[in-house]
Amino acid sequence: MMNTKATIRRFVEDNFMMGSRRSAFADNASFMEHHIIDSTGFLELITFIEEMFHVTVEEDEMLPENLDNLDAINAYLSRKLSTVTA
Amino acid sequence: MTMLLHQHFLDSVARTPDKTALVCGEQRHSYAEVARRAHVLACALQRRGVHRGDRVALFFDNGVEFVAGLYACLSIGAVFMPVNPLTKSDKLAFMLCDARASALLTQDALAGEWQPALQTSGSMHSVFVSDGCDADDARLQPWPGLDGHAPSPEPATIDQDLAAIIYTSGSTGFPKGVMLSHLNMVTAANSVSSYLGLRHDDVILCALPLAFDYGLYQVLMGFKLGATVVLERNFSFPVKVLETMVREHVTVFPGVPTMFASLMTLKSLSQFDLGHLRLITNTAAALSETHIQRLRALFPQATLYSMYGLTECKRVTYLPPEQLDVRPTSVGRGMPNEELWLVDDEGRRLPNGSVGELVIRGSHVMRGYWERPDETAQRLKPGPLPGESVLYSGDLFRTDDEGWLYFVARRDDIIKTRGEKVSPREVENAIQSLPGVHEVAVIGVDDEILGQAIKAFITLEPGVQLTDRDVIRHCLTRLESFMAPKYIEFVDALPKTDTGKIKKTGLARGHTDAERTAA
Questions:
Q1: Which residue has the higher pLDDT, B137 or B253?
Q2: How many CB atoms sit inside 10 A of residue A41's CB?
Q3: pTM, whole model, 2 decimals?
Q4: d(CA B338, CA B361)
């Protein structure tokens, strides 16, 4: 099974980075800053994370600190999943 | 004498140089600093040969660079063109060519769009990138530093000169540039800030794009009064915006219905202390009665203004808050220093209680569409005084017995989604260019959150298979994201008129029936 970052990266590349605009982005590159994901896109990303990882992203967790780059999502999901299994 | 848009800003700079003018995330910028940034940029533009009347495009996320850029343009008599940062390269190229823009002020993160657009822009001679760019193009200029520039000579600008060209969707599928003079914009800013009762001690939160005229006016009105404007890049993270509102003691919150809808879904809303909030203003699309009631219940400390406007004259109507309970579905009536009336198909004025096209008279009415005489003639027609033009809105309204206005319908087929105007033709052109698509028809369907959602009906070439996602992804490469369809329906054939044109009325009915069956 792919790791979290690779899974999210694939989703982002497949859904938000089309054709010639497909270029490599760093794990800590801000989606907002680099115009990779816009408002509607973040909602799609949240839905994807919820379905893929069987979690509920609470409204007070819908923050750039948790969702605006691959590293942030990875850290957020690690915290989240460890609480679920604990 | 203060007649020009930027002079109002400079008056505030002189009055309160040290006051915070802009808050952008962690950064705070005083009036003097914004003026300094605008000044060095103005000098740099002048040195590159940007003259009075030349068009300069501003292609930025919300931030101090956009604001400095617009005042830099105005102070040298140039015309600024705000461009939504969601704009893709083809459309940007069209706008730069259409306006024959001389210069572009932009940022590196958008290089993927502006670099290809520059290839076709023959008029463009200077590109300033705020955070630098290492591309190989002789037109690229370093962003000017903050010191060591001689004052630029005062240009001979008068209030009849153009201040801005704002592109708006046209039913032809190509955007058209709304030409606005200094007089137009100063008039609109004066009227709107006077009926809202905006004050110098207000803190205005702007999460609307500055390329959208109501976002832009938050800066123009706020800076005229000497208020503080808090710029948010967007509304992607509503909780983040609420935190900013609490921290900055925000007093004024302008929005569009989709923003209010997402705020109202937050369960934690009551945990945020928004006690300073005194004004909420809504534009771009009407709030439903339910949303009006809920907003007022959630923010009892704030006065709510419902408004209606057009880029062609900025603002048309507002509903005084005390009328919200009396006639909640009304868009209100004219603002100060403006006259409105309804006409029938022959252009005759109609009495109260009628339905007709809304006509607008005032100094805020645009000077026309840039180099589009035919489309201008459809909208600007002779007014009551010799040589005067009044604006035909293209929207149908009714009046009640007392003259209050109620929106009835648009006369063209433009879709209003997420508060943005979308030309079905533009979306159809994008989808048509996808290999395998035979025919396409795009319509707007009712949507509780979006106002209208975009739906595309598509017939495919024989043997071709495409999914919804293929079409949407294709659209996202060519169109601003709000223009991508929410619904795709693949059909065997599209209904046609006797002359072979696609008949859209039947399509809308089909969607409603399907939705009803599903519900």
A1: B253
A2: 18
A3: 0.89
A4: 6
